[in-house]
Amino acid sequence: MDCDMVRELLETRAVEALDARQARAVDEHLASCVDCERLYDTYRQIAASMPEAVVDAAPYRAPESLRERVLSATRGERRDPHFKRAISVVFRPQVAAAVLSVIFLGISVAWGLHQTAALARERSLRSELSGAIGQQELIFEVVDSPRTVKAFLRATEPGSTSYGKLYTRPDLPDVVALTGRLPRPPDGEVYNFWLTAQGSDFLAGSMSVTEKGFAVILYESPSVGPAYETARVILQPENSTEPTGTTVLRWDAPR
Amino acid sequence: MMTNPCQCASPEDAGAPTDEQLMALVASRDSQAFAELYDRFADLVYGLAVHMLGREAAEEATQDVFLRLWQRSVTFDPAKGPFRPWFLSMARHLFLDRIRRRSLEDRFSVADRIDLLLGRVESGGSTIEELAWLNERAKVLRSTLFEIPADQRQVLVLAYFGGMSESQMARRLNTPLGTVKKRIRLGMQKLRSRLGELDVFENDARRPTSGGET
Description:
heterodimer; A: alpha+beta; eight-stranded antiparallel beta sheet; 9 helices; B: mainly alpha
């Protein structure tokens, strides 16, 4: 998308009425165009002020009892100064994976290795996700909701440490796929994310892998609450139109 | 000193920590700092919840917002912008999550009530220029929202508070999609033009962050 095309969509992006695909295209442009980003920022500020305008028109006072309920929920969670430092370190992306490994190694003694490894992978993916996409709201809405449905993609090659997750919600059409520890693809090949629904295969997107093997794609399905039979990450030549090649990660719906 | 429509404690009080400073403390699990933030924003978040979800659901939804703030405080990055719009955006998205579980008709009704509210304005004896000079941003935006044509304000409200897409609005309003797109663009452009004349956002962009939006 060039500047002219993007500028026709900035107002609608600011009030969040674009579909996910257009919003993603606009965001990609804004990340690399200072002039459009500055204009968008003005629209975003205007939209962000609207809640205050509404409350200003008819203010309400929060019930006193609510204060006690909210604050009491936080009182049991005080930490000592050592823990405070640990929290701040964990969320520096560059050291997150290492610290999480240590934390979850300790937890594994009590919880069992299998469960802990899964949790560590989940945290590691989320940490990478924050670093990669910042505050991109839509992805977090899909990944971080009590309604989120998760599927775990396992490596098909023996000895591979690659892994992936598929996130859907019953009330949204958007699908998020994350992968970790994927090796860099050979020149001319890409990792493609294939989904199967009602017996038909389709390409949800190509995965751009970071140095750490992390990748994320956001795909908008035609209907809310999509359900799939399989999800595969396939290493294949660029521009492939069929799910042929080397399947590196796979998930199959329980029968 | 600006008045505070939501009766929140103002971070502009002499010596008071900014919202961002309080958030840094909350990220290290300081419950006193969290209580201070609660006192600053509770009325605003609760008010928004009442308008978007109704009184019955507002209390629980407000509690969810503050617990989410406590649990996810480390995800706030002051380098990406001030706390206030970040937090209000989080609150609105959580409320939209609840709204999207309702029927399109309900969502339309919610947005319709908010639109009606914004369609009536009480000047309180001050002109919009005076309000801008006093940096009464909420009142200024309210006045500018009142000034733009009703059909343009309606689609902005349907999108932002009803969580409706352009095509959903077009169907619900029985209006061509192109017309909905045009109304959104014109409405936002008029708001930007008017607020630019009043130097509202430009002022803040030059001002160091102190708890207000930039």
